[in-house]
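Folding Problem: From Residues to Backbone Shape
Fields: amino acid sequence; protein C-alpha cells
RECORD BEGINS BELOW THIS LINE
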Amino acid sequence: MNPFRTSFVSESQPSNTWRASQPHYLRIRDQLVADLGNGRLGADSKLPAERELAQRFGCTRVTLRQALQLLETDGMIYRQDRRGWFVSPPRIRYDPTGIIGFMDYVALQGRTPRTECLHAERRPAGAWLAKRMGLEHAEEPVFYLQRRRWVDQRPVLLECNVLVADWCPQLLEADLNTSLTTLLRERFGRVQSRSELCMYPGTMNDFQAERLQVSPGSSSFYLERLNYGEHGQPVEFDQEFWRPDALAVVLQTPYPEPAQQP
C-alpha cells in the first residue's frame, strides 16, 4: 500500500481541537513527515503528483507547495525540474577544510560518486580572476574547467576550477572525469599547501539550475576556495554550487590540550 494514498486522518495525530488550530499546510507537512517516517518509501522514490496529493488533502496546490517546501528545506524531499518530488537520501557529510577529494569522501560514505567534465580550455585569466587569485597580470594563462559531480543517480554539485597553467602544463591531456586532487598528486606531483575558504547561501541561475535539475532561482550552497602551492603561491581557484539538500557541512574542531599544572 502506498502510504501517500492513505487517509489524512490518523490515530497517531494530535487531537482534532489542536489540529484545527494549525494552518492547513502545517498539518499536511506533519502527515507527510509521518508518511516518510514509516520507511515504506526508500531514498529517491518518487512522490505522487502534486495534483494527486492536493486531492488527498483537500487543498489547493499553493497550500500543498507550502508544505512541500518546508520538507525540502528540512532536507526530507527534493525536486527535479519537470519531474516532481522525491524522497531525499541521506546528506553527504562534507568537511571543506579536508584534503580528501569528492570521489573519495563520497565513496567512504557508501555512496557512488561520479565526475563529469562539461568544459575544459586554456585561456587568459582576465582582470577579475587575476585580482581574485593574486596573479601578476590578467593575461596569465589558466586552465578553466567546468565539471558536474553526481552522487548515486543525482547531480548535486556544479563546480568551476581555474588552475595556473604553468603549475600543471599538460592538464588538458589528462582524464578530467575523475578526482582532480588525485590527478594533480599522482600525475603531476602537485599538492596544495593551504586554502582560503568562503561559504554562503545563494541561488541558482538558469545555467546552474538546468545542470542540477532544479528550477531557476532555487537555493544553493556556494563555496569558494583559493588554493596555494608548495611555495605559498596561488595555484587554483574553485567555485562550488551545491544543491543544499544534498550535503551537511561538518567541521572538526579539536580543542588544545590543557596546560599542565606545575
Remarks:
- The longest helix spans residues 24-37.
- The longest strand covers residues 113-124.
